[in-house]
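Re: the multi-chain job from yesterday

Posting the exact lines I submitted so nobody has to dig through the queue logs.
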Amino acid sequence: MSHGMAIGKASEATGVKVPTIRYYEQIGLLPPPPRTEGNRRTYDRKDADRLTFIRHSRELGFEIDQIRTLLSLQDRPGQSCGEADAIAKARLVEVKEKITSLKALEAELERMVEGCSHGRVESCQVIEILADHGKCKHHQHDT
Amino acid sequence: MSHGMAIGKASEATGVKVPTIRYYEQIGLLPPPPRTEGNRRTYDRKDADRLTFIRHSRELGFEIDQIRTLLSLQDRPGQSCGEADAIAKARLVEVKEKITSLKALEAELERMVEGCSHGRVESCQVIEILADHGKCKHHQHDT
DNA sequence: CCTACATCCTCCAGTGGCTATAGGAGCAAG
DNA sequence: CTTGCTCCTATAGCCACTGGAGGATGTAGG
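And the result, structure tokens for all chains:
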């Protein structure tokens, strides 16, 4: 009765690509599902839910290892959610920092682009700011 | 007379790590410098400037191939800076988009963390929102 | 001159999180 | 029965580095 679906259907249902699903199985994030006679993976509702959970977590920028922790917490509902809370809070801090850093970056790029007089490279603000770090206002930014 | 420096000094002077300098040489971003009798790389002021240019560009999030283009533009000062301008503009758009996307992410993480009553996992907003994509307000976000 | 020790060299493997390709097997419809 | 789709495994590639092994060279002190 259990309406098992093939990997393609699971992919469609969850938005996780087929090779990615196999990859998640390989790294132990998704348990190896039962196979059909013809050796094909069959997934059920629970697997799909797990994949959705993973996808959403990845979209929020959690690392695989953090997702591993979050999943194991989900499996034991009676436990305190302090750890989940801590992971989410840490990610929130990261995101806030990245926003700050990207805003500095945005400001500098804007300065570069606005300063471009569309003339020759020799007087181009874009090139000049890149070349001369002293003309750069901010000090620490990453991707 | 040319005050050539060893790779370690070049690294110190530019903030680019030693293995990264060698890597840039390997991929053709930095020209192979002359060597001493003992086979050690010696860099001059121009090389250091180039490394600084590269580092700064990387900090602003430009890809290696874009930096390749920017460097080749710098080498030919008489040319129009339209291409440099276009690269910077494209990056600016990317950065703006990323900021928007991270703000959506920030909002959702905040909702998760605020909703956490510090009780059991079974009633934890953090886990619940991750599990149920329907509870998610936004639709498209990346790292 | 000899000994430590820092710095340098090359080569190769690993990181994260997938993504793509090759080469084949199974399955459903016409 | 054939066409064409989906599936399987295994392996390699992506980006931009980073680290380690194992050995050569340079330098400062005794």
